[in-house]
Amino acid sequence: MLEARNLVSMYGKAQALWDVSLTIDEAEIVALIGSNGAGKTTLLNTISGLHHPASGTVEYLGQGIESLDPYVIVEAGISHVPEGGRVFPDMSVRENLEMGAYPKRAWKAREQTLQQVYGIFPRLKEREKQLARTLSGGERQMLAMGRGLMSRPRLCLLDEPSYGLAPIMVTEIFRIIERLRTQEITVLLIEQNVRHTLEIADRVYVMENGRICMEGECDELLQSDFVRQAYLGL
Amino acid sequence: MKQTTIDIKNVRTLGLLLIGVLLLATLPLYGSPYSVIFTTSIIMYIVLTVSWAIFSGPTGYLSLATAAFFGVGIYTIAILGEEVQLFAVILLGGVASFCLALLVGALTLRLKGVYFAVFTFGLVELIKHVLLWYEIKFTGTRGRFVVVVDNTTIYYIMLAILITLLITAFVIRRSKYGLALQSIGEDESAAAHIGVNVNVVKTITFAISASFMGMTGAIMATRWTYIDPYGAFKSLYSFMPVLMAIFGGLGTFYGPILGATIFAYLEELLITEFPYYYMLIIGSILLVTILYMPNGLVGVVQRLQRRISGGRGANP
Predict the structure, then answer these.
(1) Domain count for chain B
(2) Residue B313 lies in a domain
């Protein structure tokens, strides 16, 4: 579904990605793990068009998208839920969700999509009229994910959805990500919570210093000494 | 999103608006010549403030370029006023400002916060001095005469611009486009994430707001008969809309209208009654507004309404 080949990304003179390649198949949950500053967010931004690569290609459904702008890419069906959620604080929960349906393709069906999103996140329906700034951290993350789903994506990029949440909320968020598969939504997930991630992901890429240093099925990685030591503390 | 259902409150507002428009439209029939001229000035300030607020209100980009677009309108009529028919010149003033704003917007709207404000402020000075240099170097004179138009015509044209502007502002506010503008103000990067083409939305809105300033400049210039770069590009016209909008209440639809009306009226009153203390009093009022009325006049009204109706807030 998505294939990134030999991506090189620069911030001015600082290189953030070194020859990164990655593939995602339809209906997969692919996880991207690695320490802070490894280039995970840059890779996501490069896929969603917020940052254009210096060289390399990103192919989505057979089309090169590496030079397209974010609004075109969202329209094509890739939704990027940024780190920390970044909901619109002074809009209500409902307005935030409606904003998510901003792409033309999604705008007409927004009422219907809204009901589907409320089905996934009943908590958001309860909070419908509240301003987003009054929500708890977990609710904000749910709102951010709901807003991402409002554009009716086929591929959802999630940047650390469990970051800073209470343990019970983390479990809830992971349960929801797993459910996206049944909605025929493919997921690329950045996570620090490796234990939970390995439980739901099909495949994992490990990034270090702007390079992909390891990839494989979850079981393989669980056997690897490097992952066990560095990320699971075993 | 606010629902546009027809309820009693909407009908009442619409009725009040219609009565207001009718009263204004018939003013030259029952009002004194002075009241017509004075109301024209107030309408000018309302137009400048509301058109400024279309862009700067929701996005939070503080533009100090109002005087530049206003001045471009003034110069359009000064140059073309003799040859081209009045309505066409006014439209051309709007078009010229629209184009300038597109250019400036495309170049500078990636600037954020104080950098954008400083640039827009510099734009006014830049155009003023380029014009001064040009006039001295090539035409050998400073300043130009402007065609004269009678006060009633000026009044009706300003009223027409005001009504068009209010309809535009209202439609933008209630549309998907208005939501996009607001999302840019709240979190520009998140707006880009969800698929808003932020650069295009910002630039077009900036240009729409500029076109109203340009048209206003073109028609108002006929009242002054003679203009030069110093008079046409006065930074005062950049600051007044900002102050008036803050005074009335940013971020609401009625705030800038109310602010501009009362502020302009107050200014006229103070200049005639207390010519020496006028600036002192205006300054004090502004200080009090910023310190004690963070949401302006509309904020105060809303707080009173809430207190009366017992906790239920009214929608602006």
Answers:
(1) 1
(2) no
Which of A75, A81, A94 is closest, CB to CB, to B195? A75
Average pLDDT over residues A91-101: 95
- In three-state secondary structure terms, A64 is strand
Same domain (yes/no): A119, A186: no
State the average pLDDT for chain B: 89
Asked whether residue B208 is domain-assigned, the answer is yes
Which pLDDT score, from 0 to 100, does residue B111 have?
84
| R_g of chain A computed on alpha carbons | 17
Chain B residue numbers touching A147 (CB-CB < 8 A): 194
The DSSP code sequence of B139-183 is I-SS-EE-----HHHHHHHHHHHHHHHHHHHHHHHHSHHHHHHHH
Q: Are residues A176 and A121 in the same domain?
A: no
CA separation for the pair A53, B202 (Å, rounded): 25
User: If 0-12 CB within 10 Å is exposed, 13-18 middle and 19+ buried, where does residue A99 land?
Assistant: buried
- What is the number of domains present in chain A? 2
Q: Does any domain span residue B281?
A: yes
Q: Which of A50, A51, A65, A71 should we substitute to test contact with B (largest number of B Cβ atoms within 10 Å)?
A: A71
Mean pLDDT of A48-56: 94
- pTM of the complete model: 0.89
Residue B113's pLDDT band, with cuts at 50, 70 and 90, is confident
pLDDT, tens digit (0-9, with 9 covering 90-100), for B193-206: 999 999 999 999 99
Distance of alpha carbon B223 from its chain centroid, rounded? 18
Mark yes or no for CB contact A82/B197 under 8 Å: no
Look at B183 and A99 and tell me if their CB atoms are within 8 Å.
yes
CB pairs under 8 A between A and B: 62
Using the 3D structure, point to which of A136, A152, A168 is the last residue of a domain: A152
Q: Is residue B88 part of a domain?
A: yes
- Structural domain that includes position B145: 8-308
Spell out which residues of chain A touch residue B184, defining contact as CB-CB under 8 Å.
Answer: none
**Angle between helical axes of B33-59 and B254-273 (0-180°, round to 10):** 140
Same domain for A102 and A40 = no
Structural domain boundaries enclosing A172: 1-77+154-234
> Chain B interface residues facing chain A, Cβ-Cβ under 8 Å?
1, 176, 179-180, 182-183, 186-187, 189-197
A9 plus A35 within the same structural domain: yes
A146 and A158 in a single domain? The answer is: no
- Rounded to the nearest integer, the mean pLDDT of chain A is 91
Q: Do B196 and A90 touch (CB under 8 A)?
A: no
Structure tokens given for B213: 């300033």
Chain B residues with beta carbon closer than 8 angstroms to that of A87: 187, 190
Q: Is the pLDDT of residue A125 over 70?
A: yes
Q: What is the pLDDT of residue B7?
A: 64
Query: Which of chain B's residues have a Cβ under 8 Å away from the Cβ of A148?
Result: 194
ipTM of the complex: 0.88
Q: Are residues A72 and A174 in the same domain?
A: yes
Could you give the count of Cα atoms lying within 13 Å of B196 in the half-sphere of its Cβ?
25
* pLDDT over threshold 80, residue B285: yes
Residue A157 pLDDT class (50, 70, 90 cuts): very high
Q: Are residues A145 and A165 in the same domain?
A: no
Show residues of chain A in contact with B176, CB under 8 Å.
Answer: 102, 107
B1 — pLDDT class (breaks 50, 70, 90): very low
